Amino acid sequence: MKLLPIYGGIDAGVRPVAREQVHAAIGLGMRPSEIARQIGRALDDLAARCAPPACTRGCGWCCHQRVDVTAPEVFALSNHLRETLDRDALAALHARLGATASALAGLTSREHHLQRVRCALLDDAMGCIGYEARPLGCRRGHSLDAEVCRAVYDEPSRAVQVPADATLSWNTGALILGFREGYAHRERALDTYELNAALALALAVDLEPRWLAGEDVLGPARTHDAAEIARLLNPGG
Ligand code: SF4
What's the pLDDT score for residue 3? Predict the structure, then answer.
């Protein structure tokens, strides 16, 4: 019998539920962007049942670090931006994404953090222009004290632990693992990509059908392939 991948940790709570639901949704032909959208909504619902974080729209201290995204998240976000921005705003965003991706090329996530490279989706008022469709990592990341986030932004080399809610972190982490495992169990384990570089590729044209057909359409933005992620999540497995 073939063993299906389980990515380490405790297989409980929302994780097996998400895994089975994502597995079933793929079987029914649901588009990856729609699956990511529904997982994002479920993550927000979970977060709303935990201690309220200090994070608010317009507080973008944490939006100067690497965000790793999967293909379904990229397609959900690029679809949303194409639907909500006009042509000029899309062109300006596309130019910013390209410039940010170039600035980030070759940087480790630590170097990205130290250089405080700003996400191209952050507007002048420190708001996210793709907030409703932001990646899962952006939804999951939170802080119980925005002043600590500001201090980290002011001095990124300082080793400071941002205070977080353990229940929120555990449950949202479990949900994301279940999402990943649902894909892995359909023989489509997910790679990750740097957000700005992936979005620069996916914004102008809908790449989702080609990704579904097996093309490596986001390849130039890849940060980790699926096998590497499985090793990271399941050391010694
Ligand atoms: S996508 Fe939005 S929430 Fe995420 S880092 Fe960029 S600006 Fe911040």
Answer: 62
* Length of the chain measured in residues: 237
Per-residue pLDDT of 124-155, as tens digits, reads: 999 999 999 999 999 999 999 999 999 999 99
In ligand 1, the atom with minimum distance to the C-alpha of 134 is 1
Q: Kindly state the tokens that stand for 19.
A: 């895994």
In degrees to the nearest 10, what's the CA dihedral of 57, 59, 74, 93? Answer: 100
Burial class (CB in 10 A: 0-12, 13-18, 19+), 20: middle
- Residue 176: closest CA among 30, 69, 52: 69
From CA 116, how far away is CA 162, in angstroms rounded? Answer: 16
- For a mutational test of ligand 1's pocket, the pick from 62, 84, 121, 193, i.e. the residue with the most ligand atoms closer than 8 A to its C-beta, is 121
Adjacency order of strands within the sheet including 192-194: 68-69, 192-194, 222-224
- The model carries a pTM of 0.95
Q: Comparing C-alpha atoms, which of 190, 188, 186 is closest to residue 135?
A: 190
Nearest Cα residue to 224 out of 215, 233, 235: 233
Distance 80 CA to ligand 1 centre (A): 14
pLDDT (tens digit, 9 = 90+) per residue, 147-197? 999 999 999 999 889 999 999 999 999 999 999 999 999 999 999 999 999
Around ligand 1, the residues with Cβ closer than 6 Å are 60, 63, 67, 119, 121-122, 128, 130, 134-135, 138
